[in-house]
Amino acid sequence: VADWFAKLWPFRTIGPTIPSMYLDKQLEDDKDYGISLFKPNNDFYMNWLNDRPKGSVVYVSFGSLVDLKAEQMEELAWGLKRSNCYFLWVVRASEEAKLSKDFAEESSKGLVVRWCSQLEVLAHEAVGCFVTHCGWNSSLEALSLGVPMVAMPNRTDQSTNAKYITDVWKMGIKAPVDEKGIARREIIESCLTEILEGEKGKEIKSNACRWKELAKEAVNQGGSSDTNIDEFVATLQRATVSDSCTMETGSIDKAAAESIEQISDEQSIESVLVFLIKDLSRKMVCKQLSHEQSIESVSVFLIEDSSRKRTCKCQES
Prior knowledge:
InterPro entries: UDP_glucos_trans (IPR002213), UDP_glycos_trans_CS (IPR035595)
Order of helices and strands: HHEHEHEHEHEHEHHHHHH
Radius of gyration: 24 Å
Helix content: 40-55%
CATH topology of the largest domain: Rossmann fold
Family: Belongs to the UDP-glycosyltransferase family.
Keywords: Glycosyltransferase, Transferase
Organism: Dovyalis caffra
Oligomer: single chain
Catalytic activity: an anthocyanidin + UDP-alpha-D-glucose + H(+) = an anthocyanidin 3-O-beta-D-glucoside + UDP
C-alpha cells in the first residue's frame, strides 16, 4: 500500500509509532499512549512476571473489542493448561462468564487479570510468546519488542496482519481452525510448544530479535522514520511561501505562516501537530487540486477541509 501511494504523491512512512521509551528512548516521559483518568495498579502482575524465568511466559490478550466464542475460550484455556507453560491471560470483565470460575485456581502456572499494561508486559524479559488476535497495534508492539506470536485473527484486517506475522516477518505461527472456526486445544498446545521449545521456535525468535533491531534503527536519529518526519516538517515550512494553491482568502494567513516558521528542525512532530490542530479554525479551503500539484497543496487542503466540515457540523447543531 505504501509503495502504491508513493507512486501518486510524495508519500512517506513513519514508525513504529509506539512510546519512545520502548524504542529509541529519546523522551524519558514518553511511556504510554495518552493520559489515564486513573493510575492502574501494575505491581501485582509485574511482580508475578519478575518471579518467572526468562522467556517462559505466554501472554494472552485479544484486545478491547474481540469477543471470543465460549467454545473458543474453553479450548484456549485447555490448550494453555495442557502446554504446562506459565501464562498471563487478560480476560475482560465482559468475557469472564465464558471462562470456568475455577480455571485460574486450578492452574498453578497461570494468572488471569482483567487488564494490564500491554507494552510493559511485552517488554518484560519473562515473556516469550504472545497469543494475539493480530490487531495492528498489538502486532506492531510485539514486532517492536521482539516477541514471537501465535496468531489467532478474528476479523477485518487481522487476517492480513496474521499473514505478515507468519509469512513475511516470519516471527509467529498461525493457529489453524476447524470447520466451526475454532482453534482446538491440541493445536494451541502444539503452537505454544513449538515457539517456546521447538526448532522452528528458535528461528522465529531469531527473526523477532532482528525485527526489533530494525524497528529501533528506523526511529533512531538518522533512521528512515526520523528522516521522513524531518522531511515532513520541512515540507510544512516550505508551504508558507508556496503559491501552488489558490485559497478563497487569496493567500496563506500571515499568522499561520509565522507559526509554521517557528517550528525548528530540532522540535518534535508534536509541535507540528499542535500547530495543525490550532489552525483548524482558520477558514481557508483549496478550490481545486490537480494531480500535478505538490504535497504542500494537499496538506493545506486537508487541514482546511477539516476546519470547514467542523464548522458546518457546529452550524447544523
